[in-house]
Design brief:
It is a single chain. By secondary structure, this protein is mainly β. The chain has 2 domains: about 140 residues, Sandwich (Immunoglobulin-like); about 100 residues, Immunoglobulins (Immunoglobulin-like). The strands form 5 sheets. Strands 1, 5, 7, 9, 11 and 12 form a 6-stranded mixed beta sheet that branches. Strands 15, 16, 17, 19 and 20 form a 5-stranded antiparallel beta sheet that branches. It starts with a strand and ends in an 11-residue tail after the last strand.
Length: about 260
């Protein structure tokens, strides 16, 4: 007797997936690229839409960063309504997030993840033994933002500190985030006397360029093998609250030099 094959595909963001030459995609999408939750706000609404031609059963929950966590095991300072629901084709559903006021860092952002698991219904008339079920899980960052932080999030990216350091057989850009905000980057390049050195490609498809508060991260420059002379500048792209990509430029502290205090 043939068994039903169930394949659960995890995705971060709305992406197309390919499984053994069988095209598949999630029908339910979330509007937006991230969720910003001001700590003093009563609730935040996230809108979902079923772009598919079939109804979908959806389960939603939040976690603290562990992709293996389940609704039964995770604990976050939020309530989510509704946790399980059905979306008809080409219809929308509102997810309501409410912050419970539980203890969270008062001087910096806290990061959580919103999970949306979509399970399409079985197709009528299909033999169960020959059917493949595809379940799609989408994860979206949720930033809990306290009140009265010292400056706006718009200025956070410009406050990143950059330094060129020796790394393996060459050099790397060391980025430090001294701000109370999470800063998400999408590109990092070093400029030196008209030459551009791009950071090494991500080793894995889900490598994150997000820099949490107080984070220090290295961006390897595989083509920079010799000590550079002249002015050093970094060009990088940061992602705003609304998902827009904003270009920035900053000076870079050379190897061995000390950065002056701001």
């Amino acid at each position: 007797m043939k068994k039903l094959a169930c394949l659960v595909l995890y995705t971060c963001g709305v992406v197309g997936l390919l499984l053994q030459a069988v095209p598949a995609r999630a029908g339910v999408i979330m509007h937006g690229t991230r969720v910003i939750y001001p700590a003093d706000q009563q609730e935040v609404v996230v809108r979902l839409e079923n772009k598919g031609d079939r109804p979908a059963l959806v389960q939603a929950w939040l976690d603290t960063g562990d992709i293996r966590s389940t609704p039964a095991t995770v604990r976050t300072p939020f309530t989510l309504s509704p946790p399980i629901f059905r979306i008809e084709p080409h219809q929308q559903q509102a997810l309501r997030l409410r912050y419970t006021g539980a203890a969270a860092a008062p001087d910096r952002e806290s990061l959580y993840w919103l999970n949306v698991l979509e399970v399409p219904p079985l197709t009528a008339g299909t033999e169960q033994g020959n059917q493949i079920e595809l379940a799609f899980r989408t994860r979206l960052r949720v930033f809990l933002r306290p009140q009265a932080l010292p400056y706006s999030v718009a200025s956070a990216a410009s406050k990143l500190q950059w330094k060129l350091v020796a790394h393996e057989h060459g050099y790397a850009l060391q980025a430090t985030n001294p701000t109370p905000y999470h800063v998400s980057l999408s590109s990092v390049d070093l400029l030196n006397e008209g030459k551009r050195f791009t950071k090494a490609p991500n080793k894995e498809a889900n490598d994150s360029l997000m820099m949490p508060c107080g984070d220090v991260k290295l961006f390897a420059l595989p083509l920079l093998r010799e000590y550079p002379t002249g002015a050093l500048n970094v060009e990088f792209t940061a992602v705003s609250d609304f998902g827009a990509r904003v270009r920035h430029s900053a000076s870079v502290t050379p190897p061995g030099a000390r950065r002056s205090k701001p």
